Amino acid sequence: MPITCRREYMIRSYKRGIATTASWGCTLSLPLPVHIHLRLLCSMFVRLPPIVRIQYAPTLTSPCIRLLASSPSYVSVVSYTQRGPGHVLSVPVSGVLRPRYHAASYSRVFSRCAYLMSLCPHLGRIAESFSNYVRRRMANPPLYLISRTSKKPWNEKTSEEKYNTMGSWFLGPRGENADILKEKMSSLVDQVKNGRLQYWPDDPVRLRVSRPLYLDSQSHYLMIHVIQDFITKAMSDSQDFKDSVDEVQLGIEYLGTQLAQHSVPFFSPRYAGHMNGEISMPATLGYIVAQQYNQNNAAPEGGPFSSYIEWRVGQQLCAMIGFNSYFNSSSQRPDDIVGWGHITADGSIANLESLWIARNLKYYPLALKQAMAPGAPFDFIASTFMANLCNGEQKNFYLCDAWDLLNLTPTEVANIPTRLSNDYNISSDALGKCLEQYSIQTVGKQKLDADFNITKPAQYMISVANHYSWPKACAVTGIGSENLVTIGVDYNARMDPTILENKLKDLCEAKQAVYCVVLIEGTTEHGSLDPVGEVIAIRERMQKLGMSFMIHADAAWGGYFATKVTLAKKKRPESEYAFSIPLNEWANDQLRNLKRVDTVTVDPHKSGYVPYPAGSLCLRDDRHRFLTTWTSPYINAKVGDDIAMGIYGIEGRCVQRQFAAFLSHEIIGLLDGGYADLLGTAMLTGVKMYGHWATMSLESPVLTVTPFNMLPIEKEKPNPTPDEIKAQQEEIRTKIVNRRNDELEHDLDAMSLVRQLGSDTMINAFACNFKVDGVINTDVVEANFLNTRIYQRLSVLTVNDDLKDRPIIILRTELMQKNYLGTLDMFKSRMGLSGSEDLVALTNVSMETAEEEIKNCLVRIQERPSIHSFLVQGTNVLYLVYLPMFNVENHKRQLIVTGTLSGDAMQEYTAAKEQNNDSVFTIHTKSTVLSDLKTLDQILADKKFVGDIYQGLPQVYGSSPILKDVEFTVTSVHTDQSLDRQNLHAYPNEMPFYLYGSSKEYHIDHVLGSAPNAQLSASGVTLDVTPALDDSKKYTFTFDREIEWAMQPFTEGSTSTSVSEGTITLPQNAGDIFVDYEHLNEEIAADVYIMVPRDSTMSDEQIKADIDNMSWFLAQMLRCKGVLGDAGRPEASTIKEGAYFAIVSRFTGKQPTDTKALRSAQHQAWVAKFEGGA
């Protein structure tokens, strides 16, 4: 006979000290034994929050269960028995709303209740009522925790009202809101102080000091405890205390001054270089206030509130992306997959964690199969456990081969623990402990590959426009950077889905697995969004063929633009579009599809206006987070403890960035339009800047600027004519560039054109080219030089760079031909370029700076009469070795000539050489009249020139030569080789040298067949070869033990036929050896001509004084007292005929050209400035 029982629960709420009771529920009789009753209730309520964690106790009368519920502030759960109230549990509403307790978390509870319903209809009704209660209670979770004082919702505000609100979010480029920031900082300090005072206010913070009191000679003593304030007035009045405080102030002033002078001004509208920008004041204040509490989210007990804030921010980002989250729980079904997110240091860490998940998930089924082997812990399920393959078929899990298991869908793998728990009662703890010995994190990838005979490593697919963090992450996770396969892009720099699908089909046919396809949603250089919808469709097609993989979206830059997706679907007044433009159709489609990918990287410190460092990783399936923890790297069947954020991911938890994102989301409004309009205004600015740069060519006769993103006419027509392009440029300038935003509001044609311009987000890449006499330059290298020089002029790179000299700050990027292929060919073609070289591109440009740098381009590409310089070798027969340059047309020659000096010059040179055998000697052509300067070809045709001989290299020609006005007559040309790029080739295997002279005195000079290179010359070498050489013939020789391609890590070349072998001995004197890398490879170097303009009225004496002075002060050589400094020989029409002039040598003040040397020089400059007392 069944035992009846009575159970009544009353939930009371306390609001403002008034006890109220609201009841809900049902009363029913349960004709069940007590032990059955208890078991069923425990099963039903095992997932309940604290509000229903109630002790069960049978009663003797009135067989019923009564569930009463109420809402708001505090709730009290009271259990009643015959003897009155029993267990009482009071919890705040926030406890009920803890993150783990949203509706989706009860999916397993509801499924169990269905089972209960089959046993007892009454319990089924309880389950249904409880389900409705939870959904009703969680239907509208608060979007924001901070109260709103604005009377209007954001979407009801006008453009002007929104602009006004946005003005309060930032300090301002001129510090306009500095007083507000000071006020909030002061309030922040007060809040921190009050928080410390509230902690045990009756227990003052004091220091207990123990002083010994000796009682006898045997050193027995008592400890007397003296209580004193921790920081006493005596301490604060002491000079030591005051000195320390003063030092802090000095430190703040030092850092503030140096940061202001040497920091890139991300806060300024003049900065248009990268994805950096101003940070919001809410984010700044959130960061600072969290810093004062120094919490640690490694475990909830180290930061309970901060752990909750991190969870909340993660849920906000999931909702922004479109994943199921806490904020849309009312619309979720019980079996819906729920998203999860957390904060990382940056996008690189988030990307690394996504690889960690993909790798562990891919190998999880293999580890489970090993755990089912005979004698293994789970051998008892091997015959019955089934796998749902990605092609829709079912197959015995243990009988699946490696290919089947490597291609289970991410959801299927995540379901395995739940299935094992439901079907075999295997707990998550037991599953984790047993799988540990088989896990990839324990045994390593190599062992599992060997055990399953996997000889072809799984691969990652990603766009060629990927971030550098991806190959690094592949190296760290053991996947290997060579298994990161890059996929080509279309003309908009978006991943080409056709190339991707073909590659996947090849891998599928070869039975080579794929971990993941990575989509770049907001490329660094172009702002492009990869095709999310198409790649998801490709995965569905590949799954039918038996291949499955994860899809990750690297939306570090583009993620926050997903806030605009919702708004983009709504009808908005046309006048609003000039305030905050919507996403273009492509961008809207891709960002709306983000909710269908598996994992997403989003960086709050990029388009979220949050301080560095702050990245995040969001997961569509919250169960995948268990793959990013070391304590339990197994997918858990239980509902996880979401509040324990610190156990997931690679790093510990810096809570400042979480609070920065939280407060910025709260104040600006992540999910109700604030961020959407803020980014929309930035997008409008980006489009107008695009229009400015795209039309800049109309304003200059020598400069052309080509945007990477095509003009609408270029998208519509394959090959538009120059006139058609110019017409659209005129339209853009007239309708958009030259108009204010408010003028655009009612011009529907203009706004239609706006939505067709620029990139998918707001990043716009450009490249400059130039014209010579109206003809466009076609050389990629020269265009690269122009763009690099513009970048150097408009960026902050060295300690001496002055921000005030930079009208704008820009970014340089390099588009590699091997990656961009046809896309880059098209871009070059639109610029008027041809060639296979990589291309340097910019994100901004200043026309004035660009036109100035075009003059330097002309120095490089135009041959003009100039000074020519030679190394002097030999004392028996005189040889001159030309000092060449690879990149300047005037000096692109490797030339070796022999000849004679006039008069007694040879004897005087020989004597000087003997007295200074540690110095090299050089000779340089000269002219007293600029019009008498000659080209190198003219000198060879004349077979003579007049020059000065110097010890070493001169700084100013004509200053202190050892021999002046010496005539050199050319008797023969030993070597004359052009150094134009078409004559250069790959680096040879063995290092070649020209050999010249005679058996009395041999000389050598390195063959410059490749660039960059080094000029290596030696005079008076000793040669010992067999057979002996014929002095009447020309020879080259190679060092068989000096491999040139290994010194310069490029491809190997061919070698010549050997006619003699032996040894060569270099001379002992340092002056007989010449080594140059710097001048040979300089991107630009020209003699600087110091002269007076044609209209100068200065006296000859003053002219000479000023020119001589300026020659030695090169830092001011552009303009000084009416004197001009011009690189390269000037046009005759611009100078005063017959006036005194000076020429500063091209060998003066050169900078290192190789990257390592340049960085080293920059580092040394910083050290010298700040540590050397400069």
From TrEMBL:
The modification N6-(pyridoxal phosphate)lysine is found at residue 606. Keywords: Lyase, Pyridoxal phosphate. It comes from the Eukaryota. One of its GO terms (biological process) is carboxylic acid metabolic process. One of its GO terms (molecular function) is carbon-carbon lyase activity. The keyword Signal does not apply. InterPro entries: GrpII_AminoAcid_Decarb (IPR050477), PyrdxlP-dep_de-COase (IPR002129), PyrdxlP-dep_Trfase (IPR015424), PyrdxlP-dep_Trfase_major (IPR015421). Gene3D superfamilies: Type I PLP-dependent aspartate aminotransferase-like (Major domain) (3.40.640.10). It holds the Pfam family Pyridoxal_deC. Its cofactor is pyridoxal 5'-phosphate. SUPFAM superfamilies: PLP-dependent transferases. This is PLP-dependent transferase. The lineage of its organism: Eukaryota, Fungi, Dikarya, Basidiomycota, Agaricomycotina.
